[in-house]
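Human: I wish I could look at a protein chain and see how it folds. This is the protein in question:
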Amino acid sequence: SWRKFASYAGTAPFPNQSGTYRGRTKTSKLANKRIKTLLTLCAGTAIQYSTEMKTYYTRRINEGKSKMSTLNIIRNKLLARAFAVVNRNSNYVDTLKYAA
């Protein structure tokens, strides 16, 4: 599944908590660095050229969220979309084109 691959690639968030302490979620340091780097580059390109990702990124930044956590969410969104296309054995359909 895409969640297992996200864990392998180092983009899956893991909770940092113990007892009553709740820290920020972190990503695994034991990741495939090449895949994580490629996903980061893809996410940066998606932020630049995809209007959906750009509006999502700017909305999260304006809410006060960190840039890296938002970038990580976009990396996971791209992974989920790629796995959906492969599992369905179909081309990617941009749903914003067909929205009313």
Summary: The chain has a mean pLDDT of 88. Helices lie at 2-9, 33-49, 51-62, 67-88. The beta strands are 17-18, 21-22.
